[in-house]
Amino acid sequence: MFNRCLALILALVLCAPFGLLHAELPSPELSHELHRLKTPVAAPDFSLEDLDGEQHALSDYRGKVIMLNFWATWCPPCRREIPSMESIYQDLGDKGFVVLGVNEFETPDHVFAYTGQLSVFPNFPILFDLDSKVAELYGVKGLPTTLLINKQGQVVYRAAGGRNFDHPEVRAIMGELLSEGDGGN
Questions:
Q1: I want to staple 145 with a disulfide (CB 3.0 to 4.6 A). Which of 3, 140, 168, 174 is the partner?
Q2: Who's near 73: CB < 8 A, 6+ residues apart?
Q3: Average pLDDT for residues 134-163, to the nearest whole number?
Q4: How confident is the model at residue 181, as a pLDDT?
Q5: What angle, 0 to 180 degrees and rounded to 10, lies between the N-to-C axes of helices 168-179 and 76-92?
Q6: pLDDT tens digit string along 175-185?
């Protein structure tokens, strides 16, 4: 009995500070870097349902700049980047900018309940890739992964990992993509 009590006390004394230390560590800053593809590639078309069961095809958004974001509720950096995605969507949505949040593997009921707990409700379409076929089309290896698609339907930027889309450098990239082709269309 004494040995068990001593082992429990040692475990609490030795392990508790590490657990507390881990719990108090701040989350690292989200990056703002987006990687430009050397050669743009055609964005494969797809069609997925949103929270209301309505179909959204990528081709429905041709002529707009699209942020295609693959995410899941269990992914901490995915959750952290949602407010900045909503902010840029609110600021640029009327200028021809669209955010499509493609949720991986989760049900609409689960995601709906999750979004109700957020401090910022995403107003951009949340689509459901339950079998990950769209993620496979785009070569997604981890979450979150974000792709920027130009007005011509080409993937021009890619980012793996959480991003702060409110950053001035990201906003400058969006401005450049939105102004491409103005006057020629």
A1: 140
A2: 79, 103, 106, 110, 111, 114
A3: 97
A4: 76
A5: 50
A6: 999 999 765 44
Maximum C-alpha span of the chain: 83
- Tokens 């041709």 correspond to what residue? 62
Domains by residue range for the chain, with CATH: 30-179 (3.40.30.10)
Residue listed under structure tokens 């980012």 = 159
**Confidence at residue 14, expressed as pLDDT on a 0 to 100 scale:** 38
- Which residue do the tokens 């949040």 mark? 101
Tell me how far apart the alpha carbons of residues 31 and 91 are, in angstroms, rounded to a whole number: 20
Q: How many CA atoms lie within 13 A of 109 on its CB side?
A: 0
Burial of 71: CB neighbours in 10 Å, binned 0-12, 13-18, 19+: buried
Query: Residue holding tokens 């707990």?
Result: 117
DSSP per-residue letters across 96-127? TEEEEEEEES--HHHHHHHHTTSSS---S-EE
